[in-house]
């Protein structure tokens, strides 16, 4: 069984495929809290929860009303069929941390169906969980957006950086790239050292840096400094296009 938190058809807002029409499946559950990002959401009971901007897919205790139980691959395929899609749209598997489901039959069967039907499947993952590529060969054919968490996430280094997972994914799969969330206050020599060490585990992997932001106003405020940082380091700047267009609206 897996938990599906939301699904929607939109454009990819971040990373290597910004602007690409994409069908998103957001699954519930994560192995991190990332309270350092300090995005707050209020639960139905009034409790204020702090974490990332998709904390409703992380915190089941307070947001369980969003989590739908999925017990068969047919249920996911039926969700897919709700959309009248043009050919060859991307399918983005996100969370939470979607690779928590890497040994769930419902999940692995769904990925297999998508790959067999020639969809580009992108996992948005924190790169701490390693799929079994030998058992589930379809996972090798996917794209991996490696959103490795930095110190600004509030998580410990040991928990958020797993060298074996990073190196194995990047050396095993069809395509991968790094996607770092950076705020202006964290741009310093220690950030350079931190990113350099992460990149040493996958030295030929492209890097995209996007601003930490929770709404359009903060996105616009944090963008100029990060662009200058990317220019200095030779990294790719990634907008958060969905936020720039729809602000804090969900399901877009």
Structure write-up:
The protein has 252 residues and is α/β, with parallel strands linked by helices. It has a domain at 2-177: TIM Barrel (Alpha-Beta Barrel), CATH 3.20.20. It is built from 8 helices and 11 strands. The strands form 2 sheets. The protein has a 9-stranded mixed beta sheet. It has a two-stranded antiparallel ribbon with strand order 3-4. Strand 3 (39-42) and strand 4 form a beta hairpin. Helix 2 packs across helix 3 (105-116). The model has no long low-confidence stretch (mean pLDDT 95).
For the structure shown, list the relevant keywords:
8 helices; globular; 252 residues; single chain; alpha/beta; TIM Barrel; nine-stranded mixed sheet; two-stranded antiparallel ribbon; 29% helix; 11 strands; 23% strand
In short:
The chain is an alpha/beta fold and 252 residues long. It is 29% helix and 23% strand. Helix 3 links the parallel strand 6 (90-94) and strand 7.
